[in-house]
# Entry
Amino acid sequence: MENILDIIDSIASEKGLNRENVTEAIKTAFIQTAKRIINPTFAFEADVDGRTKQVKLRQVITVVADDAYELEGEKAGAYMSITAAKAIDDEAEVGDQLQMEHELETYGRSAFAALHREIEFHIQRLVENELYDKYKNKINTIVSGRVTRVDNDQNTTIEIDEIRAVLTMKNRIKGEKFKVGDVVSALVRRVNVDKVMGISMELSRTAPKFLEELLALEVPEIKDGIVVIEKCARIPGERAKIALYTNRPQIDPIGATVGVRGVRINSVSEELCGENIDCIEYSASPELFISRAMSPAIISAVNVSEEPNGEKKAIVTLPSDQKSKAIGKSGINIRLASMLTGYTIELKEQGESKAREEKKEGLSSLEALFGN
# Structure
């Protein structure tokens, strides 16, 4: 094949690939074609001759003893007995490697057709590997693209640069509807490689990490690491709680995240279909952290314990008029607090124990009275 170096440069430039990687792909294509056309048991090597700009294809034959088992194996074509080797070169020894050049041109049009297919295949694999490495580094980051298709199950196909991304119904916020042409932002959950479909991405707008990344885009202090999101819990489209902290005493992590008149947090909330976002200050003390996580309810006391099976439990004592706030609409507040802290939370009204004791004493008095 003439001017192979020009072909390599052209492919590398057109596909945006590394020149050395393209060269290796071309050499692999020649070797695979030779195995397919000449003999699959032969061992081949390929090199690019910089002077002639051609690929040199060589069959490599290893010299072995006359009784070597390799001469009868599946790859017998890659070996030659010492007796046969000495017939070619009387100085041949066991372990030597003889080389025999082959030119695919001599094998006709079928060889060229096979080589063309092999080059296309290996270049395509190279492109996919480059794309995979590129987008694998984008996992857990936000990407944006234009909707190209919405199927009957409301699974949304989004075109992002060179690849196809899919936002399934389960990864969309409840009530969201997209149409072709809409620009959508979402979190990259995983990158998939399929032999038929190629590379695709799975997106999510419901993952807690999506909220974290949106906040990082909106709040410079979070992006710069001054304010850290320690934990995050979401019920997508309804409500979320984020635990924040900072090592700089002069910085208010809650105020920095919320912004002046709530402008920062409101901007993120709008992107999440009005999702209400509660910001609380993280504490290493589980009792204090749970108390803050139960906001807006005012908590009197928190007692934590760990079961033998590893389950963490917290008994939260609070005034009776705070119980509805602690539970929240449809139990959303206590669920989020449990998700955020990692504790199973049980509510206990203040004075409940005392009332129970008084009831017990009253029953004992009645028993004593009727007993007499």
The first strand starts at residue 43 and ends at 49. The chain has a mean pLDDT of 86. The chain has twelve helices and 15 strands.
